[in-house]
Specification:
Thiol Ester Dehydrase, Chain A, alpha+beta, six-stranded antiparallel sheet
Length: 156
């Protein structure tokens, strides 16, 4: 499948997930900015729905952005290999470096690790876990948080 068409398809799938399956995605409205074999880039705007009482991005909204950036490669590679994927997060650890007082960009550069997990799951039929790292940057391109997400995938 053409990479541009695949990008549009994944954006549409993300919208549908937020609309019908995972309401928190719809509520925080993460936007897929970039997606390729290595990198996923997602943006969440700082607005009334994503703010906390300190006017910075709420932990839950940061977790949603890390969830999408850390997991979107599972859908990307499942589509590339024409497989259906059962996907969940098994664990998460995070470090908050400074308050996120503006729109945030979530970047994961672990696409190859997720692809290897997908390929291993296709070969063995088993569920495979892989750790992905997500970095969060504010509008001034300062690092505000890091997440380590344990992605669990099984291909059908």
């Amino acid at each position: 499948m053409d990479k541009d068409k695949l990008f549009k398809k994944i954006k549409w799938q993300l919208f549908l997930l937020g609309r019908f399956k995972i309401p928190m995605l719809g509520y925080t409205a993460p936007k897929l900015i970039e997606l390729n074999n290595n990198k996923a880039k997602v943006k969440i705007k700082l607005k009334r729905r994503t703010k906390n009482h300190l006017n910075s991005m709420y932990f839950g909204a940061l977790a949603v952005g890390a969830d999408v950036a850390g997991g979107i490669h599972a859908f990307y590679f499942a589509n590339m290999h024409n497989k259906k994927v059962s996907f969940a997060f098994k664990g998460m650890s995070c470090e908050f470096i400074k308050r996120a007082e503006s729109d945030c960009t979530f970047i994961s550069e672990d696409g190859k690790k997720v692809e290897a997990a997908i390929l291993k799951s296709i070969a063995t039929g088993d569920r495979v876990n892989e750790t992905t790292k997500v970095e969060v940057y504010n509008a001034e391109n300062e690092l505000v948080a890091t997440f380590e997400m344990i992605v669990s995938v099984k291909c059908k």
